[in-house]
Amino acid sequence: QVQLVESGGGLVQAGGSLRLSCAASGRTFGSYSMGWFRQAPGKEREFVAAISWSDGTTYYADSVKGRFTISRDNAKNTVYLQMNSLKPEDTAVYYCAARTGRWGLTGRLGEYDYWGQGTQVTVSS
Fold first, then answer.
1. Which of the residues in the chain have pLDDT under 50?
2. For residue 48, what pLDDT is reported?
3. Exposed, middle or buried: residue 108 (CB in 10 Å: 0-12, 13-18, 19+)?
4. What distance in Å separates the CA atoms of residue 70 and residue 79, rounded to the nearest whole number?
């Protein structure tokens, strides 16, 4: 079992930056990749970014490409999401997720096995 805990959410002005963290614990062996998803009120949960534990390969949703950066610290079992040039449309609860059992990066929600509780990000205009 993998436990995920997000932190770093908060309120920022449009154009500002925020860095989210996701600490993973438990049986992380076999967790091939990590992802960030977000869910705004009344909307479906959507993919944001993913990263491979092994080589750091990344994959981004078009909506955040060039603004957000996902990274990881293997020694700390922690994944980060650096969010720059934030827009009001980025306002959502951001969730960290772990994919186990299969290799590769994906934005499909159903292919992630473990989820954190989420952290609120609010971008004011």
1. none
2. 98
3. exposed
4. 7
DSSP per residue, 3-52: EEEEE--EEEETT--EEEEEEEEES-TTEEEEEEEEE-TTS--EEEEEEE
Cα 117 to Cα 3: distance, rounded to the nearest angstrom: 10
> Smallest Cα–Cα separation from 93: which of 51, 36, 25?
36
Classify 110 as helix, strand or coil: helix
In this structure, which amino acid lies at residue 51?
I
pLDDT reported for residue 115: 97
Sign of CA dihedral 41, 45, 51, 53: positive
Which residues pair with residue 100 across a beta bridge?
Answer: 31
- Cα–Cα dist 2/100, whole Å: 9
